[in-house]
Amino acid sequence: MTLKSTPTAYGAVAAGLHWLSVLLIVALLASGMLADQASDPAAKTSILAAHAPMGIAILILTLARIVWWWRFDTHPQPLPDPAWQVMTAKALHGLLYVVVLGMAASGIGMFVLSGAGEIVFGGAALPLPDFADFTPRIPHGIGAKLLLALFIGHAGAALYHHFVKRDATLKRMWFSR
Ligand code: HEM
Ligand code: HEM
After folding, report:
1. How far apart are CA 42 and CA 38, in angstroms?
2. Is 14 in the pocket of ligand 1 (CB under 6 A)?
3. Domains in the chain, number
4. In the chain, which end has fewer C-beta atoms inside a 10 angstrom radius, N or C?
5. Distance 118 CA to ligand 2 centre (A)
6. What CATH number is associated with residue 149?
C-alpha cells in the first residue's frame, strides 16, 4: 500500500486519518452525550476532561486532513455509480468536514466563554457553569444531532456498497491491499 492515494484506492495516510477520525468521533459523540446527561458534577468534570482534549485532537486531525488533500494527495476516481450518487457522496463528505469543524469551534467557544477550562483542567473549585447559558451550546447541540445523522447515512451508504452492491467502495478505504 502506498502512502498517497492512487486513481483506484485511498493511500495509507488518507485511510489512517479517516479511521482515526472515526474512532475519535464515536468517542466524542458518546462522551458528549454522557456529559450532557451526567447529574453528578464531579463525574461530569471527569467526562469533560476527556471530551475536550479529544475535541481539540479531532480539530487538529481534520485540519491536517484538509492540508493533506489540498497540498499532497488526490482523491481516487469515483466508482462507476450514477452521477447523483457521486455528487451526493461528495457533498456529504464536505458537510462532514464542516460539521466536525463547527463542533470543535463551538465546544472551544463554550469553554472560553464559561471559564470551564479552569475548573476542568486548572483544578479551580466546582460548580461547573450551566453551559445552556452560553450561545455556542446551541450550535453544539444541533451539530451533535446533525453529525449523528450524517454518520449513520455515510456509514450506511458504505455498508450498502460493501454488502449489497459488493463493490470496492469500503475495500479501497482499507489497508489490506
Ligand atoms: C468534533 C468535536 C466534538 C463533538 C463531536 C462533540 C460532541 C458532543 C455531544 C454529542 C454533546 C452532547 C450534546 C447534546 O446532547 O445536546 C456535547 C456536549 C458538550 N461538549 Fe462537545 N463535542 C466536540 C467538541 C468539543 C470541544 C472541543 C469541547 C470543549 C473544548 C466540547 C465541550 C462540550 C461541552 C462543555 C458540552 C456540554 C455539556 C452539557 O451541556 O452538559 N466539545 N459534545
Ligand atoms: C463520523 C465519522 C466519519 C467521518 C467524519 C467520515 C468522513 C469521510 C470523508 C470526509 C470521506 C471522503 C474522503 C476524505 O476526505 O478523506 C470519507 C470517505 C469514506 N468513508 Fe467515511 N467518515 C466517517 C465514518 C465512516 C464509517 C463508520 C465508514 C464505514 C462503515 C466510512 C466509510 C467510508 C468509505 C468507504 C469512504 C470512501 C468513499 C468513496 O470512495 O466515495 N466512514 N469519509
Report:
1. 9
2. no
3. 1
4. N
5. 35
6. 1.20.950
